[in-house]
Amino acid sequence: xxxLAELPPDVLVxxxxxxxxxxxxxxxxxxxxxxxxxxxxxxxxxxxSPEGPLRPAxxxxxxxGCFDWHSAVHGHWALVRGLRLFPDHPDEAAIVECIDRRxxxxxxxxxxxxxxxxxxxxxxxxxxxxxRLAAELHLWDDPRADAWRETLxxxxxxxxxxxxxxxxxxxxxxxxxxxxxxxxxLAGVLDYARTVGDDxxxxxxxxxxxxxxxxxxxxxxxxxxxxxxxxxxxLTEADLLRRVLAPDAFARWxxxxxxxLSAQPHDSLLEPVGAEPDExxxxxxxxxxxxxxxxxxxxxxxxxxxxxxxx
Length: 311
Hints:
By secondary structure, the chain is mainly α. The chain is built from 13 helices and no strands. α4 (69-85) runs parallel beside α7 (125-139), α9 (182-196) runs parallel beside α11 and α12 packs across α13. The chain is globular and about 50 Å long. InterPro entries: DUF2891.
């Protein structure tokens, strides 16, 4: 039986290390560990030359698995986070060998070179996940994390600088339920900046958030989810704003943006989508992820509202 299925939902959403049994660590590592090693099938999201596309492992020697680049980055984040939260991780040796083998100076230089030739590649979703991976390595007090972070640093620096120059200057956000969602990306950037102590990036990101979102009112949620969403545009925005506004200010903003979340039409956001997992249909699996992303957004919103209530 899946050990996660036995946990109460509120405990699972909190994500506490001490709430998860050790066999949950192995469960959570199974798909990422397999995925980052799987080169095909692979989605190519770039314009090709007449010579044709390179093999994924030649194009992206670090992040070539998991069907696409951002998923490979996300998979590495999941593996690193598992090692950090579970010092006695049952798959530690396999994970360390897997990351050591691909995260080399030469491979990272190849990744950077690709971005220099394709500067909008994976903007903004993949950028956000790369910064989340760097932040996770920063949080982990372990010599292996320090070494991996140092090796990854050139790519981290490229993404960080590109974020300053491109993402923070956008005129209007994308309010979609898939990879282009601006709020999701900015949340990752802000969390990264605060984690690593990049005050300039944190200040600039917060200013962008205020410029793009603080005037929003009466959002429309009746059409969610659309197609193959894996995030809720409304809840993802709320989860971002609670990072920037003080609890009392956030509570006032939320009252105008999502008044009475428990009543129609917004109450549908509280109900599971109920998608049936189908590993053969990647797009349908997005809807499985939507329930998870809604849950973590609601948990963050609830935490801020609790702080406002108790102030």
